[in-house]
Amino acid sequence: MKLEAKLEGSSVISHSQGLVGRLETLLLQGNSSDVSLRVETVDGDEAKQFQAHALVLSLQSPVFGFMLQNRNSSILLLHESQDCVAVFDKFIRYLYCGELSLHMDQAIALHKLATKYGVSDLQQGLTEYMSLNLAGASGSGHVVDWYEYAAAAGDEGLKATCLQFLSWNLSSVLRSAHWPSVSAELLMALLRRSDLVLQSELELFEGLEAWLVQNDPESLTVENALRAVRYAMIPPRELFRLQRRSHMLARYQESVRDLLFLSFQFHSASPLQLAKFFDVNCSLFVPRNYLTASWGTPWVINSPARDDRSTTFQTQLGPSGHDEGKRVTWNALFSPRWLPLNLRPMYNEQGAMHQSQSVQPSVSAARPRIIITPTTSSAEFAGVHFQKTVIVSTRQQSQLVVHHVYNFHQSTEEAGDFLAHVDLQQRTSEYLTDGSLHLHIIIKPLYQTLIAIKK
């Protein structure tokens, strides 16, 4: 018995757990059953039978309600796929008890049943379950399966969530045994994105070539996929090597010849010169989130709730081979309780706080901040602006997975939403690994078209 105090003079007596237990007993023993559900595969190889109650089924499922109203027998025959038959006992128990336990490999089948029979609460709960368990499911390939299922079922929210996770953890996806099973539709959706997190564009090309060899798709798919690679982000020496040893490039050379030629021009000419004739803001010249040292640095902050931390690192001025020898030095400052200048208390010459600010709760605005600034003179950045990206990773099943990605522009020193609403005092925070904050800072140089392109 559970007794809860409510308004003064009133209480609530709750025996809901006991009611759930009696409903489960009702299902298991079939007492007072008025309908028999026979669930079998289309070919009839596997079947299960449940003694059920029309009232309960109709209350939980409008689809069952309609079917039961129009039945002409005490037996209701249901045809389901084999995976759905295997979990139907869990599904029917949910209708009686409002809860179920599941493994990751059962999520799709249960979602199918919830969708088919209009059990919206369960459908939404399973979508949320899959969205919250992407990291744990990544090693077994379930994220790819969940994406493909969401795409087929028209669940745009789950589809977008899975695609975002795969994009942020593409290096591990490319190395997994499940990469060859990715559909052509998912492959192209990934290739078109600029927020992919991976070691380099070369790693992406090698993963793409492995997929193409394994799946042997039609020529149009191959051409579209090869043209989605950003060859200009691959150093010239690697491009020459690819042309010599890649059978796929040799076979489809005519399809990507213009991209390779433009990429070599990009690496050999001054970006300012190139910008006079080409649109350097097109996707070919836009870097993704590369993890190699030329683009940024990893940064592990131990005990991030205590003191300010800082680090210094260098990146290449731009992705063009013309800028290969030029470096930009960056300072990064992390503070667990940073207070913006406009909210810091101001003092007069006698050291007293201004009265107008003494009553402001400015300290409550303090929260984790990261500030990244160049030490190099901005005069050396002519034609280049920088997008700064901070990746936060957490450990799941012995490997780091990307938990969140923050982006901010050259014109701002800090990411305004960085770790917003995160309590770093909690060592069990989902953003921490063994009490430490695992960051990776990426500087993405983008060339600007300064002069109108000649037609």
- The rough form would be described as flat
Helix content: 25-40%
Q: Any idea what the radius of gyration is?
A: 29 Å
The strands making up the biggest β-sheet line up spatially as 8-14-12-13
Can you identify the CATH class of the largest domain? Mainly Beta
The low-pLDDT segments are 358-363, 451-455
Describe the protein's topology.
Layout: E1 2-5, E2 11-14, H1 16-29, E3 35-40, E4 47-52, H2 54-60, H3 62-69, E5 75-79, H4 82-86, H5 88-97, H6 107-116, H7 120-132, H8 134-138, H9 142-153, H10 156-168, H11 170-175, H12 184-191, E6 197-198, H13 201-215, H14 219-227, H15 236-245, H16 247-251, H17 253-268, H18 271-274, E7 289-290, E8 296-302, E9 309-316, E10 327-338, H19 355-358, E11 367-374, E12 384-396, E13 399-409, E14 436-447
Parallel strand pairs: 3-5, 6-7
Antiparallel strand pairs: 1-2, 3-4, 8-14, 9-10, 10-11, 12-13, 12-14
Helix pairs in contact: 2-3, 6-7, 7-10, 9-10
